[in-house]
TrEMBL record:
Top-rank taxon, per record: Eukaryota
Bilayer topology: Multi-pass membrane protein
InterPro entries the UniProt entry points to: TLC-dom
Originating organism: Emiliania huxleyi (Coccolithophore)
Signal peptide start and end residues: none
Protein name as it appears in the record: TLC domain-containing protein
Keyword Membrane: yes
Primary location recorded for the protein, binned into one broad class: membrane
GO CC field: membrane
High-level lineage: Eukaryota, Haptista, Haptophyta, Prymnesiophyceae, Isochrysidales
Keywords associated with the record: Membrane, Transmembrane, Transmembrane helix
Subcellular location: Membrane
Transmembrane segments: 20-41, 62-85, 197-218, 238-259, 293-312, 332-350
Length: 459
């Protein structure tokens, strides 16, 4: 480890210099794109007289948005490599591996993107916000520490500064509509669609995946600070942890705002939808008219428990990478899945159907949803880790299929709110059955080809 650290220290300065030299022409290209956009917008008579809140010409504000979205787009596309990248096996490799791809396609473009944005923030009064400037300066410092004094957190930067940028793409149109209200007036449908896409991508990337990746990053960093892993720079590690805490708090703060807006929109829709009592009465009628569908719905609750039981039984035969998850050990995850089956049954199969329950319906609903969404976030993050493992022997399509199957919750929830109870029962059953069926196939395939089975045959 010391020899590896010494090698990195000897090569750190050239890497830092190369990153900055690569960022300079990229920044120039972004500013040229800004200038070209300004010229195009100025050539349109309709927009020549449009102004921002502080009198800035519309062409300059549009140029800024095109420039910043171009930077976000490059980072997001480059960051998509995170979803299929192999996860390093050790904390030292996850923290200190030097990844040329990250230096070239994430760090250098990130510095160029931040620098061009800062220049425009200082030049245009509508953008001169202290929070934005502080955010970009902090992110720039983190980018510098990623190459100096040693290559640092490249594996994590691929997500934090790359894949997570996917949620910022629809935000560009939203911000432009705020800066220039005539744009929103000209395309109200586009504004609403951008808000919906942004909310969905933000919740997925920033509220589900971001915390899961953060937990692993903190775990690795604390190992380095304790000395269990050779720590190249305690100062850089502490600065990264503090910055990550601030940025994560910002994500959660924005997430609360977004969730409140979603809740407000859902409340408005719910006010025009059938009442809870009406929906419950419909479900009680379906128990008599569609008994098989209701039985399948009630039985689906225990799909979680089935997955937990099979996972627990297969743990000794699974490869090392499959014996833990992002948030906890494999045994704890299996136990949580077993518990989820019971909670889901009490909420979905008893309380939702209007049956009396101990305590209150709200309590069972809260417990069920809290554990269900925690398990879903953990499963989504763990799916990427397991799929990227060299020990995975299952079909590679299972990981994305399982994550995509979580989307069945959306039509399930919409049908419930709108009072369409037959499709609700079908979709909610799919929300239980499909992800668990895929998870079972993945676990069983991997266990069949895992080291435990191979070792038994060899003996």
């Amino acid at each position: 480890a010391n020899r590896h650290r010494h090698t990195m220290l000897g090569e750190a300065t050239p890497r830092s210099t190369l990153m900055l030299s690569a960022a300079a022409p990229l920044m120039l290209w972004l500013l040229l794109l800004f200038a070209a956009t300004v010229c195009v917008v100025e050539s349109r008579p309709r927009w020549r007289s449009a102004r921002g809140a502080h009198g800035t010409r519309a062409s300059l504000l549009v140029g800024y948005q095109v420039c910043t979205v171009a930077g976000n787009l490059y980072l997001a596309v480059a960051g998509c490599a995170w979803f299929g990248a192999e996860v390093p096996a050790t904390a030292a490799d996850r923290l200190y591996s030097d990844l040329p791809y990250v230096r070239k396609h994430v760090l250098a473009p990130l510095v160029a993107h931040l620098a061009s944005d800062l220049l425009l923030y200082l030049s245009l009064p509508e953008l001169r916000q202290p929070a934005l400037i502080a955010h970009h300066l902090l992110t720039g410092a983190l980018a510098h520490l990623a190459t100096h004094p040693v290559p640092y957190t490249h594996h994590y930067i691929l997500f934090f500064a790359g894949a997570a940028e996917l949620s910022n793409l629809p935000l560009g149109w939203i911000e432009l509509c705020k800066l220039l209200p005539p744009v929103r007036a000209a395309s109200p449908g586009g504004y609403s669609a951008a808000r919906a896409v942004f909310a969905a991508s933000f919740v997925t990337l920033r509220l589900l995946l971001w915390p899961a990746v953060t937990v692993r990053f903190w775990s690795d960093s604390l190992l380095a600070l304790r000395g269990d892993v050779a720590c190249a720079s305690r100062g850089a590690t502490l600065f990264y942890l503090a910055s990550n805490a601030v940025l994560t708090a910002m994500q959660l703060g924005w997430g609360v705002i977004i969730c409140r807006r979603i809740a407000a929109a859902a409340s408005a829709a719910a006010s025009a939808a059938p009442s809870l009592e009406h929906r419950t009465a419909q479900l009680r009628k379906l128990e008599a008219s569609r008994p098989r569908l209701v039985f399948a719905y009630r039985a689906s609750c225990f799909a979680y428990s089935a997955t937990g039981a099979v996972y627990a039984a297969c743990l000794p035969r699974l490869p090392t990478a499959f014996r833990s998850t992002v948030l906890c050990g494999g045994g704890w995850f299996a136990a949580a899945l077993l518990l989820q089956g019971g909670l889901s049954f009490m909420n979905d199969a008893v309380a939702t159907l209007g049956r009396p329950v101990p305590f209150s319906r709200r309590l069972w609903q809260t417990l069920d949803r809290l554990l269900a969404w925690t398990l879903t976030a953990n499963a989504a993050a763990t799916a990427r880790v397991w799929a990227a493992s060299a020990e995975s022997t299952a079909h590679p399509a299972l990981a994305p299929a399982m994550v995509l199957s979580f989307l069945t919750f959306i039509p399930s929830r919409l049908c419930e709110v709108w009072g369409r109870m037959v499709p609700f029962l079908a979709w909610h059953s799919a929300w239980h059955y499909v992800p668990n069926a895929i998870a079972l196939a993945w676990i069983l395939q991997t266990a069949a080809g895992g080291p435990g089975a191979g070792g038994a045959e060899a003996e």
